[in-house]
Amino acid sequence: MENVIAGEILAAGNAAREKTLRTDYAALGEQLQRRAIDIDAILKKVEAFAVAIPSWGVGTGGTRFARFPGDGEPRDIFDKLEDCAVIQQLTRATPSVSLHIPWDRADPKRLKQAASRYGLGFDAMNSNTFSDAGDQKHSYKFGSLSHADAGTRRQAVEHNLECIEIGKTLGSRALTVWVGDGSNFPGQVNFARAFERYLDSVKAVYAALPSDWRLFTEHKMYEPAFYSTVVQDWGTNYIIAKELGEKAYCLVDLGHHAPNVNIEMIVSRLIQFGKLGGFHFNDSKYGDDDLDAGSIDPYRLFLVFNELVDAEQSGKRDFDPAHMLDQSHNVTDPIESLMLSAIEVQRAYAQALLVDRKALGAYQENNDALMATQTLKAAYRTDVEPILAMARLNAGGAVDPIATYRASGYRRKVATERPAVAAGGGGIV
Ligand code: PSV
Ligand code: MN
After folding, report:
1. Is residue 429 assigned to a domain?
2. Domain at 278, CATH number
3. pLDDT at residue 421 tops 80
4. Is 122 helix (H, G, I), strand (E, B) or coil?
5. Which atom of ligand 1 is nearest to the CA of 429?
6. What is the pLDDT of residues 262-272, one digit of tens each?
């Protein structure tokens, strides 16, 4: 496996930090032992935890007002894979990349070669029928899978089939479908007819799914349609997954809900009825802000993982939610944001593993609301950083990924190698 960051830089950074880390890890181990928790067992689980990087996340994002490109931005999917390799090399928590077609269209064999050179795999494929590609016949201005015109729907279905074909060569095992279909004016579309057309189209996509693949449909409350959206909420999404069959699951993008919605309860419901497919992790304050995971409300992220760990520990069958990041970086170096976001997701998982579930169950049975919530807080308040850093060190990553990345000068290097990517209008990301 090719190292993008020089081995000596990584080793030097770790050498400077390893002694302190071992002291901190031992101290946390003692603290957890008093709570009857074996730190090494938690470490093992954290080491096995992974979250996929969205290929589109390593480029600088933008808003509809402007995009301010950063230095050395990836020019194509091969540069993106190189950036993803840096994230994986230093965090060891992001072994796969999620591709978006047509943005990442390239010879699948070359893609596979490039990824395996870096030791990366491919996560879910993402189709794009929310914007027009240069060479397509029908426009998606008024929708795609739910479009009133049969030719446009057919084109959108075929695009999804092409994504599956590309994914097969790459070794992907899932397709994520998000459509921006909806309306901007009351009366513009007939809700029922649009949903019926969507269901017909997505059924045609589902029919082409290989037997070992999963189909993830992603709901979103609004944007780009601002009055109604065809797949707007988890209820609609659940209906879709039920209508399609056992390979269809709901994907929860944390940013796709109204502010203050109890997302962890949605997660619980979908788990209970066997339809939770996975996540797009990010954070938000007002809407689909695509901010870094855990940057605004880390407690909510913990509460989501509390549900996941609860399900995992209660032995739910066929429970294997996909973990992906989906965020947009407008003011930070995307590599740094993605490294920290992956670690934040991992942190929420580690904290959720510390919840005393036996005590919590007893408090719940006895209606002791105060102690029940304190039980969650006790886990959340625990500083699990030594566990996360130890997991990285054991796997050959960096104790401090940001410091090591900055010391490596990677961004300066690619800035000289990659000609600037144009500024300009924003994207939807
Ligand atoms: C839509 O906002 C979304 O969350 C979907 O996952 C898209 O595929 C992604 O963002 C990129 O635009
Ligand atoms: Mn998403």
Report:
1. no
2. 3.20.20.150
3. no
4. strand
5. 12
6. 999 999 999 99
* Residue 176 CA to ligand 2 centre (angstroms): 9
Per-residue model confidence (pLDDT) at position 319: 86
pTM over 0.85, yes/no:
yes
Query: What domain range is 236 assigned to?
Result: 7-417
Number of domains composing the chain:
1
The residue whose C-alpha atom lies closest to atom 2 belonging to ligand 1 is 429
Q: Is residue 422 part of a domain?
A: no
Which one of 103, 104, 229, 280 would you pick to mutate in the ligand 1 pocket, going by the greatest count of ligand atoms within 8 A of its CB? 280
178 C-alpha vs ligand 1 centroid, how far in Å? 7
With respect to residue 24, please indicate whether it lies within any of the assigned structural domains. yes
Residues 6+ apart with CB under 8 A from 248: 206, 214, 215, 217, 240, 241, 242, 275, 277
Quote the ligand 2 centre to 233 CA distance (angstroms).
Answer: 13
CA of 326 to the centre of ligand 2 (A): 5
Span 169-200, pLDDT tens digits: 999 999 999 999 999 999 999 999 999 999 99
Contacts of 374 by beta carbon, 8 Å cutoff, 6+ apart: none
* Chain center to CA of 218: 12
Indicate whether 1 belongs to any domain: no
